[in-house]
TrEMBL record, chain A:
Protein family membership: Belongs to the bacterial solute-binding protein ModA family.
Binding site for molybdate: 54, 82, 185, 203
GO biological process: molybdate ion transport
One Gene Ontology molecular-function label: molybdate ion binding
InterPro entries documented for this protein: ModA (IPR005950), ModA/WtpA (IPR050682)
Organism: Virgisporangium aliadipatigenens
Keywords from the named record: Metal-binding, Molybdenum, Signal
UniProt protein name: Molybdate-binding protein
Source taxon at top rank: Bacteria
Entries under NCBIfam families matching the protein: modA
From TrEMBL, chain B:
Transmembrane feature ranges: 12-34, 54-80, 92-113, 133-158, 179-203, 236-257
Name of the protein described by the UniProt record: Molybdenum transport system permease
One cellular-component annotation, GO: plasma membrane
GO molecular function: molybdate ion transmembrane transporter activity
Its job: Part of the binding-protein-dependent transport system for molybdenum; probably responsible for the translocation of the substrate across the membrane.
Family matches, as NCBIfam families: Mo_ABC_porter (TIGR01581), modB_ABC (TIGR02141)
Organism listed in the record: Virgisporangium aliadipatigenens
Entry-linked InterPro entries: MetI-like (IPR000515), MetI-like_sf (IPR035906), ModB_ABC (IPR011867), NifC_ABC_porter (IPR006469)
Coiled coil ranges: none
Keyword set, alphabetical order: Cell membrane, Membrane, Molybdenum, Transmembrane, Transmembrane helix, Transport
Gene3D superfamilies for this protein: MetI-like (1.10.3720.10)
Annotated localization: Cell membrane
Length: 267, 265
């Protein structure tokens, strides 16, 4: 055998090995978790929650309360833009619960058959204009954002807060040119906190969570751009019992109270 | 001689990990190619946002490489040829952008060059210039992240170069500057070219520092990686197509340059 032949044969072997590893992974992914069907009243293990960035503060709090109420359970969160999370879930990320900041994003998961049952809308959120503490530019409404010398950050239209911002601006018939279209609501807010922009359209809850650095200016047109937040148990949830218990806890009075305090509206 | 070396038996202990390494690097690319929606590719290419993002990416990456060459080659020379106290610390500092998560790099840039930053507030107050959310800001972010690649490559080339040529030039009365421009630079030109290529490639793929420091606005600061990230939010296929366009263009340019400028086996 020539060395070229050996090289080709070895390369082929390596490819087969790698493919074999990949196939092994696939074969095992769909196995039902042992003990999944058995007693679901006793919740244990880790519950992995994928939640919209705007839920960061309230869900972290709810997660701690849930752990306290269910000893032996750990809740881990992945907070990011809803659309990014939906993409990850549709690509097989091991999420137990998905909480999205928009029904449209949730639909990409339910349409792909990756939700267990129908989503429940658990809160609604409304936009405000986040301005630096003390409102140095005197912003009172959407129209003020078009003044020259006022730099505005919006969310990109691909993420829920951007879609809501577009709706609100349309409702107000205000056409403004932002300096940047941020990838999620926290990024837009951080541009205000850093003083790089004079205003950003963010959720009321985000402005409230950052109230040490920013003020939230309410505006009437936000009523026409209210976002519903749906939550659902994922079909491939590794810890289905834990996932159901967590969703029930979010919908319970204790969960409700945390979300109210954060500034969310009722469903 | 060369021919013989090529046909010698390759030790399996080297070949196997090499092949695995190659597969590891190439398989994700294959994944992109397999998943790519080929039928819609021409339509996506002609979408207005795509070409402007691609053009912006190529322009800013090239400008950033220019900045890195002007500042990075002298820095590499300093590190390789001059003994000064704290040289090791300086060398470590040069590699900081490699270790720093790019998003943190973007925040750090904002703290210095932002509207309220140390230098940025002065720029704004004196000249009315603000860098964030501008194309210049994109170049800043890319140069910050990519410069270490150039400095490390050029410093390595300088250390590997035969210092006797420089000594000979000095003995013949050439000043240090003349020696640098007439002897050192031609000597390490391949190293500089290799460093510039690495630097350009890194700048082209830059995402975190760019979106944090320069924001995201189509035509002004939305480079291809940013467009890919946002496409990923809603449309996986669009993101794959955009990535492939970026890959194809960059690989074509790099392959073209390699034959032309970087001579070697």
């Amino acid at each position: 055998m020539t060395s070229r032949g050996i090289r080709i044969a070895l390369a082929g072997l390596v490819v087969l090995m790698v493919l074999g590893l990949v196939a092994y992974g696939y074969g095992h992914e769909d196995d039902p978790a042992p003990g999944d069907a058995a007693g679901s009243d006793r919740v244990k293990g880790t519950v992995t929650v994928f939640a919209a960035a705007s839920l960061t503060e309230s869900f972290t709090r709810i997660g701690r309360d849930f752990e306290a109420a269910n000893p032996g359970v750990r809740v881990t969160f992945s907070f990011a833009g809803s659309s990014a999370l939906a993409t990850q879930i549709n690509q097989g990320a091991p999420a137990d619960v998905f909480a999205s900041a928009a029904p449209a994003t949730m639909r990409t998961v339910t349409d792909a058959g990756n939700a267990d049952g129908a989503p429940t809308t658990f809160v609604r959120n409304q936009l405000v204009i986040a301005v630096p503490k003390g409102n140095p530019k005197g912003v009172k409404g959407l129209a003020d954002l078009t003044r020259p010398g006022v730099k505005v950050a919006l969310c990109a239209e691909q993420v829920p807060c951007g879609a809501a911002a577009e709706k609100a601006l349309d409702a107000a018939a205000v056409s403004l040119t932002p300096v940047t279209l941020e990838q999620d609501v926290k990024a837009a807010l951080s541009k205000v906190r850093l003083g790089e922009v004079d205003a950003a359209l963010v959720y009321r809850t985000d402005a409230r969570a950052a109230s040490s650095d920013v003020d939230g200016v309410e505006f009437p047109e936000s009523v026409g751009a209210v976002n519903g937040y749906p939550i659902v148990v994922c079909r491939a949830a590794p810890n289905r019992a834990g996932a159901r218990a967590f969703v029930a806890y979010v919908l319970s009075d204790s969960g409700r109270a945390v979300l109210d305090r954060a500034g969310f509206l009722g469903p | 001689m060369k021919r013989r070396r090529g046909t010698q038996r390759v030790p399996v202990g080297l070949l196997l990990p090499a092949a695995l390494g190659l597969a590891f690097l190439v398989l994700p690319l294959a994944g992109l190619l397999i998943r790519a929606p080929w039928s819609s590719l021409p339509r996506r290419l002609t979408e207005p946002g795509v070409l402007s993002a691609l053009w912006l990416s190529l322009r800013t990456a090239t400008a950033a490489t220019g900045v890195c060459l002007v500042l990075g080659v002298p820095l590499a020379w300093l590190l390789a040829r001059v003994t000064f106290p704290g040289r090791r610390v300086v060398r470590a500092l040069v590699t900081v952008p490699l270790v720093l998560p790019p998003v943190v790099g973007g925040v750090a840039l904002l703290l210095v060059f932002g509207r309220r930053g140390l230098i940025g507030s002065w720029l704004d107050g004196t000249f009315g210039v603000t860098l964030p959310f501008t194309t210049t800001g994109v170049v800043f972010a890319e140069a910050f992240v990519a410069m270490p690649f150039l400095v490390i490559a050029v410093e390595g080339a300088l250390r590997g170069a035969d210092a006797r040529y420089e000594e000979a030039a000095a003995t013949l009365g050439a000043s240090r500057w003349t020696t640098f421009t007439h002897v050192t630079l031609p000597l390490v030109a391949p190293g500089i070219a290799a460093g510039a290529v690495l630097c350009w490639a890194r700048a082209l793929g830059e995402f975190g520092a760019t979106i944090t420091f320069a924001g995201n606005f189509p035509g002004r600061t939305q480079t291809m990686p940013l467009a890919v990230y946002l496409a990923l939010e809603t449309d996986l296929n669009a993101a794959i197509v955009l990535s492939l366009i970026l890959l194809t263009v960059s690989v074509a340019i790099l392959a073209g340059l390699r034959d032309r400028w970087i001579t070697g086996p």
